[in-house]
Specification:
Rossmann fold; GMP Synthetase, Chain A, domain 3; 9-stranded mixed sheet; 15 helices; 34% helix; 24% strand; globular
């Protein structure tokens, strides 16, 4: 594997992703991770990430003692390169000019650039520069403003890049990272097939003859996990899918049709009445979210008890935790967790209380979302679930503003279905990160035929985003929006007005509640 030591760059995760795309397993650890922790990963190479510090800061972060002495290749990126040079006796200074953005390499060569030819655009973002090379190093790339844009010491196998090879703005950066893998001798066998075999073996080892309980949400993570676990432990898995009445049109049937034929022992719990009852008359968004979270746990625990009585006690609870949730990086927990939680109390299917007294099985702890999608394809999860937009745990309840009712859920379900089916039909679905319909409590006057109407306003929202922390509203074609508006007012009598949400996040959030 390759171990990436994180010194606080916003791009650190991208380095890991790039390596994995190249078929190599890589792990992110805090920059200060002790030598023993690093060695647990059996590293064949180390990357020192970028970061906001200057090597001359009193608090400048550095690798733990012994790390730089390891006899394996080390690649420093940006701050990492400056650290490498500084540590080896070179000089680093605040550059006269802060360099930020794209720069052409005016010259390049050496092992990292092997097989690369032609123009090389590099993404720079630094204010310090290496001004004097340490002994044994050579400059292998430069730009007009940065005479030392890349360095190498082929004896000690130490390499440095002042620019960021991991970002898309460095189009040939992937080749550099690939060359580093070759220098390290890292096998490129991190493929979906390989991952599945390994995960199944790991689960079998952990679970033994034990029984496993899993909450299915209908999303890609828990569905894929269900398929994987069914392969690993067969009938000793019970997957529980709670129909809280806040699902999309046909969702329950789709989930059942996707999982049961592939051998998942799936139990669907009809908890619609309980949820509806608990939510009756509740209009405060936070209150709604809390009630749904609470009811979910109740329903799940109730069903777990029934299943345990029938088939025997469960020893393990499986969760679809992903790598971004657990990265031990410089910034602690991933931003999407810490940031969003202050604004809205999230309810995640599978986000169950700790006192359930199960041991956890989390096979996806080392995977990124796109890797889970790649597994899902091999495990046979249908495309429409595999490539689905995220859907919040509280479901349509937080898209029906104010107090919900069976009738309102029914209206919203039909509007949502027209919009989402339309996006798919017009080939626009995959271009959006998330799309949703909202039922507002606004009633307004309209005319249909010769009749006066006084009906609800539906809002449509589609966004593009990488991380769901910030988002742009999707510039959907007007013609498409016109078609959607027509279909909705014609198909859903309770709606006589359709609006499109043209607000980014911030200041708005993606969901309306
Ligand atoms: P907001 O509305 O905060 O949403 O901009 C950001 C992303 O999080 C999803 N979301 C949730 N997901 N449980 C979830 O599993 C929740 O309670 C929840 N609330 C919001 C939202 O759909 C968007 O993708």
């Amino acid at each position: 594997s390759v171990v990436i030591l994180d010194f606080g760059s916003q791009f650190t995760r991208l380095i890991a992703r790039r390596f994995r795309e190249l078929g190599a397993y890589s792990v992110i650890l805090p920059g200060s991770a002790p030598l023993e922790r690093i060695q647990q990963e059996s590293p064949q190479g180390i990357v020192l990430s970028g970061g906001p510090s200057s090597v001359y800061d009193a608090q400048a972060p550095k690798p733990a003692p012994g790390v730089m002495d390891l006899d394996i290749p080390i690649l420093g990126v940006c701050y990492g390169m400056q650290y490498l040079a500084h540590e080896a006796g070179g000089d680093v200074k605040r550059a006269g000019k802060r360099e930020y953005g794209k720069a052409d390499l005016t010259r390049y060569g050496g092992q990292l650039f092997e097989g690369i030819s032609g123009e090389f655009v590099a993404w720079m973002s630094h204010s310090d520069s290496v001004t004097q090379l340490p002994q044994g190093y050579e400059v292998i790339a430069e730009t007009a403003d940065t005479p030392v844009a890349a360095i190498e010491n082929t004896q000690t196998r130490r390499y440095g890049l002042q620019f960021h090879p991991e970002v898309v703005h460095t189009p040939k950066g992937g080749q550099i990272l690939g060359n580093f893998l070759s220098i390290c001798g890292v096998a490129r066998d991190w493929t979906a097939e390989h991952i599945i075999d390994e995960l199944i073996a790991d689960v079998q080892k952990q679970v033994g003859e034990g029984r496993v309980l899993l909450a299915i949400s209908g999303g890609v993570d828990s569905s894929t996990l269900g398929l994987l676990l069914a392969r690993a432990v067969g009938e000793r898995l019970t997957a529980v899918f709670i129909d809280h009445g806040l699902l999309r049109l046909g969702e329950r049937e789709q989930v059942e049709a996707a999982l049961i034929p592939l051998g998942v022992h799936l139990v669907t719990v009809d908890a619609r009445a309980e949820f509806m009852g608990a939510l009756e008359g509740v209009s405060d968004p936070e209150q709604k979210r809390k009630i749904i979270g609470r009811e979910f746990i109740r329903a799940f625990e109730r069903e777990a008890a029934i299943q345990a009585k029938e088939h025997g006690q469960f020893d393990f609870l499986a969760q679809g935790t992903l790598y971004p949730d657990v990265i031990e990086s410089a910034g602690g927990l991933s931003a999407d967790k810490s940031g969003a939680a202050n604004i809205k109390s999230h309810h995640n299917v599978g986000g169950l209380p700790e006192d359930l007294n199960f041991k956890l099985v989390e096979p996806f702890r080392t995977l990124f979302k796109d890797e889970v999608r790649a597994l899902a394809r091999l495990l046979g999860l249908p495309e429409h679930i595999r490539m689905r937009h995220p859907f919040p745990g509280p479901g349509l309840a937080i898209r029906c503003l104010g107090a919900i009712s069976e009738d309102k859920m029914d209206i919203l379900r039909r509007v949502d279905d027209i919009f989402i089916s339309g996006l798919r039909e017009f080939g626009l679905y995959d271009g959006c990160s998330q799309a949703l319909a909202i039922l507002t409590p606004i009633q307004s006057v309209g005319v249909m035929g010769d009749e006066r109407t006084y009906s609800y306003t539906a809002a449509l929202r589609a966004v593009t985003t990488d991380d769901y922390m910030t988002a742009e509203w999707a510039r959907l074609p007007w013609e498409f929006l016109a078609t959607m508006s027509n279909r909705i007012v014609n198909g859903v009598h309770e709606i006589n007005r359709v609006v499109y949400d043209i607000t980014g996040k911030p200041p708005a959030t993606i969901e309306w509640e």
